[in-house]
Design goal:
By secondary structure, the protein is an alpha+beta fold. Helices cover 26% and strands 32% of the residues. It has a five-stranded antiparallel beta sheet with strand order 1-2-3-4-5, with helices on one face. Strands 7-8-9-11 form a four-stranded antiparallel beta sheet. The chain has a two-stranded parallel ribbon with strand order 6-10. It is globular, with a radius of gyration of 17 Å. The termini are far apart.
Length: 170
Amino acid sequence: MDKPIIENLKILSECFNHKSDTFSNSTIFVNEVNKISIQLEDETNFRITYNLHFDEKMLLVPEETVYHFCLSLFKRKYDDVELPFSIKKTIEIGEWFKIEQEESVNIISAIEKELDYNYRLKHLFLESARFEITYCNGLLILEDKEKEYFSNVFNFRKIQITPLKKSHEA
């Protein structure tokens, strides 16, 4: 399982105090609350199996929503919390820039400044009017406070920002 999603999930699992183990066709994440198995089902879908009290629950999710469901599981406080399956649009970087405009650019700049100061930066938690933003070991996590969008994860080094033109500039 060499998909970038799985490698990113391993990084995220460490941020949420999970241990991971990779097998030929699946990766397992565990901590004192969770036992989560992620398996590539086909080219575009993942099978997520997780513990639910004394049983297991299985979800088949498309590739674009796997981060949202895994983040929700990584953050679970109790093993009797079931993930509701719903259909929403996943937040993308371009959409975030449109929604929050200058605020999103300022957040990216703040993270870049912090990285310039501390190149070993592991975690940084930020917040905007609409989103919770977490920098975690090179990844940027966007979570919508209004729950209109599914959460998503991005490689921070690959984010491209185009400067916003201010209305008073010609």
